[in-house]
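As noted in the main text, all predictions were made from sequence alone. Below is one such record, for SsrA-binding protein.
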Amino acid sequence: MGAGAGYGDSEGATTARETGRKVIATNKKARHDYAVLKTYEAGLVLAGTEVKSLRAGYASIVDAFAQEHEGELMLYNLHIAEYGFGSWTNHAPRRTRKLLLHRLEIDRILDKLREPGNTLVPLSLYFNEGWAKVELALARGKREYDKRQALAERDANREIARAMGRHLKGRTSRAR
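Prediction:
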C-alpha cells in the first residue's frame, strides 16, 4: 500500500464537527401572540433517536411551552417525529423534555414566571456547534388591539420601504 492509503490514517478517520447554527424549527406565531421580554438559550435532554430525527428536520414547536416541575424547567408538547429507522428504542413524539440551564438562570426565570401574565415560550429549535438548543422567551401575552397595532406598523414599514425603493430606483435611472 502507498502512503496515505492505510486504514489507520487520522485524516480519514475523523469526522468534522458541525459549526455555526442550523435552525430546525421556529415558532413564528409566538412573536405575534406574545411580547418578548427576554430570551434564553437552553440545552435539551434528548434520546438518541430524537437527535437523529432532529438532524433530519422532523420537529414542530408550534404547541410547545415550558413550565416548572419540581424546581426544574421542562418543555411540554414539543413534537419530534419518531425516527424512521428506529427500533424498539424509538421515543414517544410528544414526551416531556428537561431543559438544561444553570441553576442561577433557572432561579431568575422562575422568579419572573411567578409574576402574573408572564410565560415561557420556545421561539426556535436549532443545532449550535452540534448541540441541540432551544431559544426560550420570557414573554407576556398580547391583547388583540396590540396585535392589530403591530400588524399595522409592520405594513406601514413595508410600504415605506417599497416607496424608498421606488424612489431610489427612479433616481438612479434618471442619472444615466
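The two ends are 66 Å apart (CA to CA). DSSP finds five helices and nine strands in the chain. These features were considered when defining construct boundaries for the mutagenesis experiments described in Section 2.9.
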